[in-house]
Amino acid sequence: MAAETRRVVIAGAGPVGMVCALALNRCGVPVTVFESEAAPVPDQRAATIHPSTLEMLDELGVTEQIREHSLLSSTYRFHDRPTGEVVAEFDLGRLKDEIRFPYVLQYEQYKLTAAIAAAYANESDFDVRFSHTLTGLTDTASGIEVEYTSPAGPERIAAAYVVGCDGGRSTVRKLAGIEFEGFTYPERFIKIATSFDLQTIKPELSYRNYFSDPNEWANVFKVRGEAPEGLWRVILPIGPEEDDTTALSPARVEQRLQKFLPQDGEYHVEYRNVYGVNQRVAATFRRGRILLAGDSAHVNNPIGGMGMNGGIHDAINLTEKLAKVLAGASADLLDLYSRQRRHAAVNYVQAQTIANKRLLEERDPEVRRRNFDQLRRTAEKFETARAYMRRAALFDSLQDAAAIT
């Protein structure tokens, strides 16, 4: 193929799109990334990068680049919110002899996007265009024509393939006519970020915490943010009877935080957001020259931090196969990508995040007791703890997906 017809267009400059672009670029494939936003948006979305993902990013030279700007966390804890008890702790450090990175990095996704863009993008063969929106796709005899809008107006570009990394409401997926199968939770989630150090009133917090409560479960994580003291994120459910305006009001946010961890003064809130939550997977991750990865292909609840990681795993799997196809291998490799990564999304990311939510919100006292007893036993023994942590860190999903032919 001529250089221009080998070009891959990626819609979306989030972490999945940028990792996909970088990996393709390292394989000698020219890429153009279109992103509707004017710059990486400093929102408080995904932030946990699992050990399996750190290994992939290390192959691209990214892990060392971001580690000094991250919070390193080897442990995560399950708590019983009504009693305040720490039910179980899992420590990735116990796997130091078998995995390269026995910890997660707490590093916000907008920083990962910005770090890759700053270090590698904006050359002719790695072209990242912010304020550019993909609007149309047309098959041609030798590839696919991409329509997009830029600050200068509507334009077109020829590509060999298009990769949709443009989120749960993906334009690429809709243009391809691919069904997004699954369901939407009736409740929404609220994410609140505070600069107040929660460990001063609850020292048993690690950097990653899951609180089980039949009435109001919670996730609590620490990220570095933009200030030396860092930010604590608290994620809570909101019932369908509460409207967003009420939920986001300063008084209601303060009430929620005080109920969760009472303190004498007011909380300084840096960020608050309400969002709906889905569990959905695309019917296929490939249709002709159109491919899907990340949230465009699968979305899930955030309990366990698997969405961004699964998306980066998509990007690396896809890159390996797409580079071979562009070098002359059969395009059937792209169907294999779809089979492998859809299997991982359904059987690991979807299954695990649904199970995580059910564990935290369980109402039956006897079932809660049995769940806690099982968690304790799992965490105490090395072999069962090892199996639990490997699955949670998505190592098992990679191994299982790789076995699919």
Automatic annotation (TrEMBL):
Highest taxon above the source species: Bacteria
Residues annotated as domain FAD-binding: 7-350
Transmembrane residue ranges: none
Signal peptide (residue range): none
MF-aspect GO terms: 3-(3-hydroxyphenyl)propionate hydroxylase activity; FAD binding
PANTHER family: 3-(3-HYDROXY-PHENYL)PROPIONATE/3-HYDROXYCINNAMIC ACID HYDROXYLASE, FAD-DEPENDENT MONOOXYGENASE
Protein name: 3-(3-hydroxy-phenyl)propionate hydroxylase
Organism encoding this protein: Kribbella sandramycini
